[in-house]
Amino acid sequence: MRSDRELSTDEMNAFGHELDALRQRTLADLGEVDARYIRRIRAAVRFCCWSGRGLLMFGWFAPTWLLGTALLGLGKILENMELGHNVMHGQYDWMNDPELAGRSYEWDIAGPGDFWRHTHNHVHHTWTNVLGMDDDVGYGVVRLFPEQRWKPFYRWQPLWVTIQALLFQYSVAIQHLRLDKVFKGKLSKEEVRPLIKQFNTKILRQWGKDYLCFPLLALLFGANALAVLAGNIVANLIRNLWTFTVIFCGHFTEQAAVFSKESVVGESRGHWYLRQLRGSSNLNGGPLFHILTGNLSHQIEHHLFPDLPARRYAALAVEVREIAERYGQVYNNGSLWRQFATVLKRIWVYRCPPAEVVSTQV
C-alpha cells in the first residue's frame, strides 16, 4: 500500500512549480545531442529490420533464421517504443524533421497513428488512471483495482490478458473504435464506420508488408517463403509481448493508484503532477534496458513530461525522486520481475468479486 503524505494547497502549488521549473530547464537545454540520438535510433531501427529480413531469406538454417528473427523483433521493438511512441508525443518536433514529426508519424504496428494520438496522447495522458475517463485502466477487459466495478467476465481475465498480450498491437488499435459504445447504442454504426475503414486500411497494409510482400520476395529470389513468414510472425509476437509487459508494469503495479472523477474536478497543475506520480511505476535497469523500453521504464517521468525527449528521463528521474521524497511522496520503482509479479497478482486477485477477495491489499 502507498503511504503518501497529503499536501496542503500551498505545498501542492509549490510541488507543481518545482516540476514546471524542471521541465523548463530541460526544454531550454535541448539541442544537437538529442537530435543526434534520435537519428541514431532511427538508423538502428533500419539496420535491425533490414538485416533481419535479409537473414530470413536464408530459410530455415537455424543460426540465420534465429538471428534474423531476433534482429527483426529488436527493430520492431525499437521502432515501436523508442522511436514511434516518443516521436508521436511530439518530443522531437523542434527539429523540424518531416520524418520525426509527431502529428504525421506512422508507426509499424496495426493501430493507425491518429488513433494512438487521441486515445493515448490526449485521453490517457490527460486523465491518467482516472476511473471512467482513462480507458487504459484495464483496457476494458481486465479488473486490476478494487475500485473497478466487478463484471462476471472478469473471472476469466487471466485468459483475456494472455490473448491481449499475444495480440497487443491489435488490442491497442481496437481500443479507439469504442465498440463497447456501439454495442450499448451510445455510438452509431455510421459514426464508427470511418474509423473501422481506417483501421482496416492499416491492418491490410501491415499484413501485406509482413505476411505477403516479404514472403513473395523470398519466392522471387528462390528462398523459403514459409521461413520468412514464420520469422515475421515471431518478430511481431516478440514485440507484442515485450510492449505489453512494459506498459502493464508502468501502470498496474502494487503501488499504482487510481482516482475517481470527483477527485479531478478543479484540478490544479500541482495536483495533476501528483496524480501522474501516484499512478505510475518505474523499472530499474541499465542504459540498454531503458532504450528497449522506449524509456517507459521511467514511466513516472514520462507521465510528468510526455513531450520531453525520453532520453532525458534518466537524468530527470534523479531530481524527480528527490522532489517526491522531499514532499513525502512514494517514488514507485523496482525491478522488471518484481513489478511484473505484482501485476500478475492483481490480475489473479481481482478476477473475483469483492465478496470473494479475502484482502484487497495487493
Main traits of this protein?
14 helices; 362 residues; 60% helix; mainly alpha
What does this structure look like?
- The radius of gyration is 21 Å and the shape is globular.
- The chain starts with 8 loop residues before the first helix and ends in a 13-residue tail after the last helix.
- With 362 residues, the protein is mainly α.
- α1 (9-29) crosses α10 (269-278), α1 packs antiparallel against α13 (313-326) and α9 (225-251) crosses α14.
- It has one domain (9-356).
- A two-stranded parallel ribbon has the order 1-2.
- The chain has helices at 9-29, 32-56, 62-88, 113-126, 157-166, 168-175, 179-183, 189-220, 225-251, 269-278, 287-292, 299-304, 313-326, 336-349; strands at residues 282-283, 333-334.
- The mean pLDDT is 94.
- Helices cover 60% and strands 1% of the residues.
Please provide a brief summary of the model.
The chain is an all-alpha fold and about 350 residues long. It has one domain. It is built from 14 helices and two strands.
Spell out the blueprint of helices and strands.
Elements: H1 9-29, H2 32-56, H3 62-88, H4 113-126, H5 157-166, H6 168-175, H7 179-183, H8 189-220, H9 225-251, H10 269-278, E1 282-283, H11 287-292, H12 299-304, H13 313-326, E2 333-334, H14 336-349
Parallel strand pairs: 1-2
Helix pairs in contact: 1-10, 1-13, 2-3, 3-9, 8-9, 9-14
GO biological process, one term: lipid metabolic process
Transmembrane segments: 55-78, 211-235
Protein name: Linoleoyl-CoA desaturase
